[in-house]
Amino acid sequence: MAIISEDDCRTIMKKALSYSKANECEISFSGSDSGNIRYARNSVSTSGFISQTNMVISSAYGKKLGIVTTNEYDDASIEKAVRLSETLAQFAPENPEFVSFLGPQTYSPPSKTFDADTAAITPAMRTDKVSESLQIAKDNKLIAAGYLQNSASFSSMMNSHGLFAYFTGTDASFSITLRTEDGQGSGYSTKDYNAVSKLDTLNFTKTAAQKATRSAGAKAIEPGKYTVILEPAAGIVLLEQLYGGLDARTADEGRSFLSKTGGKTKLGDKLVDERINIYSDPSNPELPTGSWAGDGRPQEKISWIEKGVLKNLTYSRYWAQKQGVKGIPSPDSIIMDGTDATLEDLIKGTEKGILVTRLWYIRPVDPQTLLYTGLTRDGTFYIENGQIKFPIKNMRFNESPVIMLNNLDALGKPERTVSGESFSSALIPPMRIKEFTFTSLSDAV
Amino acid sequence: MNRKNFLYLTGMGFGATMLNRIPVFGSPLIQGTAMRNVDIAMKKQMADVALNAARSKGATYTDVRIGRYLNQYVVTRENKVENIVDTESYGMGIRVIANGCWGFAATDKLDTDSIAKAAQMAVAIAKENARIQTEPVQLIPQKGYGEVSWKTPIVKNGFDVPVKDKTDLLLAVNDAALKGGANYVNSIIFLVNEQKYFASTDGSYIDQDIHRIWPVFSVTKIDEKTGQFETRQSLSAPRGMGYEYLIPKESDKIKGLTTLYRDSYDMLEDARAAAPQVAEKIKAKSVEAGKYDLVLDPSHLWLTIHESVGHPSELDRVLGYEANFAGTSFLTLDKWKSGKFNFGSPQVNIVADKLQPGSLGAVGYDDEGVETKKWDIIKDGILVNYQAIRDQAHILGLKESQGCCYADNWSDVQFQRMPNISLQPGPTPLAPDEMIKNVEKGIYIIGDSSFSIDQQRYNFQFSGQLYYEIKNGKIVGMLNDVAYQSNTQEFWNSCTAVCDKNDYRLGGSFFDGKGQPEQVSAVSHGSSTAHFKGVNVINTKRKI
Fold first, then answer.
1. Residue A48 is nearest to which of B15, B104, B541, comparing CB atoms?
2. What is the reported pLDDT for B4?
3. Which of A241, A376, A398, B493 registers the highest number of CB atoms within 10 A of its CB?
4. Which residue range or ranges hold the Metalloprotease TldD/E C-terminal domain (chain A) (predicted)?
């Protein structure tokens, strides 16, 4: 079992610090147990289990830093690793951007990131869940390919300035693609939670099955600008490019979509539609995350975009110090406000448009405008007069999330989703967007 | 590390943020111990513990991979050394077949008890999964090789080169770019060393020492008046070589609009060229969308080959094993069986090659103990083969695996990964200059950039680093905002000529992503400059 208790972490890291002779020393100690099962062609393909722990020791003399790792925790091994990190620091080149380790921090009480049942999942339980999912595929004469994964992890840090932080978390994630036997239809569903009890693999498989069956026999429509409804699993892969690009340094340096001439940035400017509110909140019960960042800074509730206005940028500790601001670290995940409207409500309110289940192979085209390209996949449907009329062939888009959020038409009710590109979780609504730019047709199903 | 991180790396134009996103496969390494290979007798002993433990629990086949994966990243920007990261990941992965089903477990605790427990866990997982298995694993026979070894034939081990030499080089590169007028420059040297030991119940004990290197930079220029910024990335290639790749030889240079490199790279010279080019790029004409002939340099074409030929000819994708993530393939088995599927024009000959010296995919044996080889994928434009591993070979009627099995770490299960996939040079003498002379309206593209392709590998879009407009056989100036979109079969059928072997060079991917959980692999793609008729080009300029 790789989960080590807070007390035991404290003891082992105190021991490591007691050996330190450097100006400052910081210890990170983490580990995880994780298991997975993968299936395709209606049968299991590969699966696995891995257990590992790791201690990282950072010693600093002035702006010279030495880092060493070990996974042996007897006194002699730890002392040897500490000594070695000190030797390395003394020989290292000075890093002008090195910032002294943080002192004691106050963190919010931990949110419910750890679920004991999820940590206790056995191979048999994974197999049982997959078995249920496979049955849906067989009942609907569909071909299933899916992936179920669970993990339990801990991380902790302590330094010679008195900082201590500890975190435990669990994760259970599932994704499923069902295809018709003739390969003409494909449907997808994915979810990710801290607690496996919420991971209704049966229901998610049913959603994918419905999409697979309905998507067969797709018609081609002419590429161009269309109103689209992006389901959360589709929207997240574009949204994350926006909030992943909030780095202050890049913006200050003039090489970001958030840069303006003369060394200025768009901080405080209205960036997108005024109905857009994006924030992070480690204590949100639907999306609990850690209360501290990897460098020891607290993770707090932060507004990133409020009523369409850019409210905050993320800072490394070095850049915050240089600019003389309180630097905020990058969030672990984001939340976007919505409305009470269901996905069905959004469809009903659409005169002509396209329902998108999933976007795929998202790649940057122009960082100046945050232009991205990618394609629809696994369930793309044409909507007319508030109803899904017929499946359509997949299309390539070239669009910027900034332009997309300026062309906002309507928002639905936020739900937890996971990016199929970065595997990050988020709590976002389905979005109806006007004039979304499709540039070519794809034959892929 | 995954495909996404590859994106971050290739998206170096984003500047400093990329430095937070550099992949770390393992933990920081105790420097100076990199070459302390684990004793081979001890590895055999540990492997036998796993083989015996799995057998005693009912495994009918077992293989063991003891891996020590070393990485070094030297990271600089402008006049600063930002980071020197050494990582090591050491442990054992045990794969078994029990009740006809695969099982896998991995551990970084390499005492006898922990190894035996991991082996037991692998067997337990296999037996659980066998309950829901419909197709028992059919493993094509593989002879045991006994105790053998293989090493990447490097001249100079990059891990032996003092870090100072690397930082000195990178800071000189940065200085050259800044003196040339760049506002910012980031540069990195990546080094990888896989010390892999494979043992199986077939009787193989294979020790391999594999090296890779990738020097890369990104130069950024900002127009102060307009705020417009552009980047130009290095024209290097990741290689299965030692530090000798960074010792430039004049004979490896191809002089032209910009110098291009064969088997050694002059990083300093490339940085000197990049600074004025990025300034020119800002002022370059925005392309008019439409049909153009494309002349694609190998520094660009490798990625198009990778995405549109390499991935669709992976047999696991064809069969549906990647349907939930990376996707399936339009190159279905019926097309191969027909023996006449017209993948490309007769000029298109594409080979799979795990033997090619200096390539990223070259190893002696794959990660399931199969000696590597070379074979045709596309012959005279026709699809003739795929890429397969031991549990797939029977589907193609093969008597042995093609040796394409790989895992990126001891902690992940091995599966089918792409061998080097390369376009063969044209048989008749032809240089890029002569090729350009025959183009009426076209674009000459150098370097790779944005890339995206659908899940069955039909529709793709690619961009480059440098675009030159061709009018009536002559280069008339630089273009910007270019991306081309096409359909794989249509594109390769529009290939009218490939330059000769003197122009042949390798490009490649250091971080190709696939699988769940996602794994990376490194793979090279060679070609000579090639000409494609009438490809759809879009203008990517937008306003926010």
1. B104
2. 31
3. A376
4. 223-439
